[in-house]
């Protein structure tokens, strides 16, 4: 059986995105071209890899079984090509998603240190990336290290690097749009809506814990297709109040309002202890240290497990915005 790596790459990207349009854009293909590559791969393998219909794209059981081997095929192909050219292998890093702090932080590092070679992926959940780190398919992953729903894998280390503040977004004209900040009383009146129900568990766990701590009603919608879909749903339901990153770029008709107390999404860097990649120690050394983390318990909020990860002598100052 001859496998075409271009077809395999199209499958892996579609599996990461679970959206053929976004996968095609990431590979600089038309959606039709990407779909054709995936179809041809399915014909070669003799099995459907995705379910297709009016609902969200999902992996079939065969697709889920094939995915780790497909990633390995791409990694081996890249390694073989670089060995011929004598090039150094990049660090394989999962940055969770496109709008969060890890991606912009790594972008700043790569701009400052062009020889820091990184190969990025976006699994949108630390839970889905942990097995890849433990198995050697990924060198580094990012995410919140709690509420994952399964034990932490042996031999995998983590270090808290930064806190990303969470605000709420409302449409212009919403009763809270002109508020200087939103607290428990306002949230109890309007409630919180999140564009997911239980996945990714580390994020839903944090937001539901925040709502419970403030005694705020919270509702979720099962389908989550990313930030653009969240904004579109907000426009369809203009009374909704939804959590958004305080540093995200938002369209003009969406108003960001600070939360009091301010919840944070903690970002930890994760790697396998015995990973011998020569660039790994350098990346870990370049990342901000624990002394840069600022958390004020009088104004800020984290679940108890995440508070335990904070440096013991963290100064009570505000978290600086990214440059």
UniProtKB/TrEMBL annotation:
Chaperone is among the record's keywords: no
Highest taxon above the source species: Bacteria
Any one of the GO CC terms: protein-DNA complex
Annotated keywords: DNA-binding, Transcription, Transcription regulation
Keyword field contains Transcription: yes
Molecular function via GO: DNA binding; DNA-binding transcription factor activity
A Pfam short name: LysR_substrate
Annotated region described as Disordered, given as residue ranges: 303-323
Gene3D superfamilies: Periplasmic binding protein-like II, Winged helix-like DNA-binding domain superfamily/Winged helix DNA-binding domain
Residue ranges annotated for the HTH lysR-type domain, each copy included: 3-60
Compositional bias annotation for Low complexity: 311-323
Family: Belongs to the LysR transcriptional regulatory family.
Protein name according to UniProt: LysR family transcriptional regulator
């Amino acid at each position: 059986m001859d496998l075409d790596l271009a077809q395999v790459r199209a499958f892996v990207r579609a599996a990461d995105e679970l959206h053929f349009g976004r996968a095609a854009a990431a590979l600089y293909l038309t959606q039709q071209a990407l779909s054709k590559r995936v179809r041809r791969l399915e014909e070669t393998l003799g099995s459907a890899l995705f379910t297709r219909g009016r609902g969200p794209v999902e992996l079939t059981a065969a697709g889920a079984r094939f995915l780790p081997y497909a990633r390995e095929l791409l990694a081996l192909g890249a390694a073989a090509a670089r060995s011929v050219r004598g090039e150094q292998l990049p660090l394989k890093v999962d940055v969770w998603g496109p709008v969060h702090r890890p991606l912009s932080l790594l972008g700043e590092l790569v701009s400052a240190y062009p020889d820091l070679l990184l190969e990025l992926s976006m699994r949108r959940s630390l839970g889905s990336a942990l097995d890849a780190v433990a198995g050697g398919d990924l060198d580094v992953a990012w995410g919140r290290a709690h509420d994952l729903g399964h034990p932490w894998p042996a031999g995998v280390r983590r270090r808290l690097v930064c806190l990303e503040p969470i605000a709420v977004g409302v449409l212009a004209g919403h009763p809270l749009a002109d508020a200087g900040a939103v607290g428990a009383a306002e949230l109890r009146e309007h409630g919180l809506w999140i564009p997911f129900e239980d996945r990714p568990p580390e994020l839903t766990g944090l937001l539901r814990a925040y709502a419970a701590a403030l005694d705020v009603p919270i509702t979720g919608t099962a389908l989550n297709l990313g930030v653009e879909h969240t904004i579109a749903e907000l426009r369809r339901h203009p009374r909704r109040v939804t959590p958004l990153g305080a540093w995200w770029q938002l369209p003009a008709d969406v108003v960001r309002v600070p939360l009091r107390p301010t919840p944070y999404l903690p970002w930890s860097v994760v790697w396998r202890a015995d990973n011998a990649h020569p660039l790994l120690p350098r990346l870990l050394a370049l990342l901000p240290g624990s002394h840069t983390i600022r958390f004020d318990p009088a104004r800020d909020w984290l679940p108890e497990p995440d508070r335990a990860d904070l440096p013991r002598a963290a100064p009570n100052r505000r978290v600086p915005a990214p440059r």
